[in-house]
Structure formats: structure tokens, C-alpha cells
Specification:
By secondary structure, the chain is an alpha/beta fold. It contains 6 helices and 7 strands; from the N terminus they run H-H-E-H-E-E-H-E-H-E-H-E-E. The chain has one domain: 3-Layer(aba) Sandwich (Rossmann fold), CATH 3.40.50.150. Strand 1, helix 3 and strand 2 form a beta-alpha-beta unit. It is globular, with a radius of gyration of 16 Å. Bound molecules: S-adenosylmethionine. S-adenosylmethionine binds next to helix 3 and strand 2.
Length: 199
Amino acid sequence: MFVPQKDHYFQRAKREGYLSRAVYKLIEIDRKYALLKKGMQVLDLGSAPGSWLQWVSSRIGKSGRVVGVDIQKVTHPMPGNVTVLQGDMTDQAFVKILVDSYGPFDVVLSDMAPFTTGNKHADSARSALLAEQALYVAQKVLKPNGTFLVKIFQGSDFHDFLLTLRKLFKKARVIKPAASRRESRETYILGTGYKGLTE
Ligand SMILES: C[S@@+](CC[C@H](N)C(=O)[O-])C[C@H]1O[C@@H](n2cnc3c(N)ncnc32)[C@H](O)[C@@H]1O
């Protein structure tokens, strides 16, 4: 079984007060593509333990708001512009409440990842399901021209998912951030310029 090492990013997160090394993936993408701005409304799916929430909160400032959703509880205290919800994004009743009660959003982020089994086909199928759920919600709550950043494991569903994003957004880029472990199959797709619902 692969046991992740407590690497440079882990130590750096500890030193800089972030709740997870995952923050450096978002920081890299945000710095390169300027995703987050003061006053933005942001939805962060798969937000526990909360390092992306910490980064987004500081970037959007007091006039912005970020809503974080995770099946697990975010236990760390968060700044006033953060709302945390505990819920399962594969539970359609919860997703309906989320879509009906929150938004619209300028940015939808999803760092959701399944509990991995080591079976790469099963794990990538579960990751694709979470990415599809995130996209379903993004299509309902994103403002026109909005931004969608989603994690998805490389696997048989990856290509079709990318093609779907290329239709829905003006641009869809595949990104493997430096802080993403080389041996991990995780990849991010960044969709910018949401075209809006066509129905
Ligand atoms: C890699 S972690 C996210 C780390 C987070 N971005 C941070 O910076 O702290 C992936 C998260 O996805 C969540 N997750 C997995 N399946 C989910 C589901 N069905 N609904 C909501 N969250 C889910 C997990 O509970 C886990 O906290």
C-alpha cells in the first residue's frame, strides 16, 4: 500500500498555518489564472479540512462569501465570510437544497476525492462521478462567464468529461499543479467563461 510522505508542502502548510498541503495546488492555479478577486461569491465542494476555504476567504475579502460543502465536518474555526455545510454531494436531496438555497456564484471549485481503494478503475470511476456531480451543480449555480475548477482522476471517463467542459466553457484547460503528487492520478480541469444554460 502507498503511504504518502510528509513532504515539503506538508511541512510548509504546517509552518504557514494552512490546514492541508492541498492549499498549494489552489494557490498555484489562482496565481497563474487569476481565479479569485475581492467581493466574489465562491462555492467550494469537498472543502474539509478547510485549507482552500482559508485561501479563498483571504482572497475574496469581507465583501465576498465562500460556501464550503463536505461530507465530513470542517472543525477548524473559519473567518466570517465562510459558510460551511455538511452534506453528501451524491445525495440528490441535499444537492437540491444546495442549488435552491445558495448562489449564484462567480466561481465553483471542487477538490472532492473518493476514499480510494487502490483499484484504479474503481477509484477513477468514483472520482468521475464526483466531478460530474460538481459540474451538475456548477451548471445550476454559476453566473454567465463564471469559472469552474474541478479535480478528476485520470481514467476512462476523463476524456469525455473534458470534451463536455470544452462545450460548456469558452476555454477548458488540464492542469497538474506542482503540489499534486507525481504518483497520484489526480488532475484538475479549469473551465473559464461559462456560457450559461442553453435550455
Ligand atoms: C482532498 S480533500 C479536500 C481538501 C480541501 N480542498 C482542503 O483544502 O482542505 C477531498 C474531500 O472530498 C470530500 N468528499 C468526498 N466525497 C464527497 C461527497 N460525496 N460529498 C462531499 N464531499 C465529499 C472528502 O470528505 C474530503 O474532505
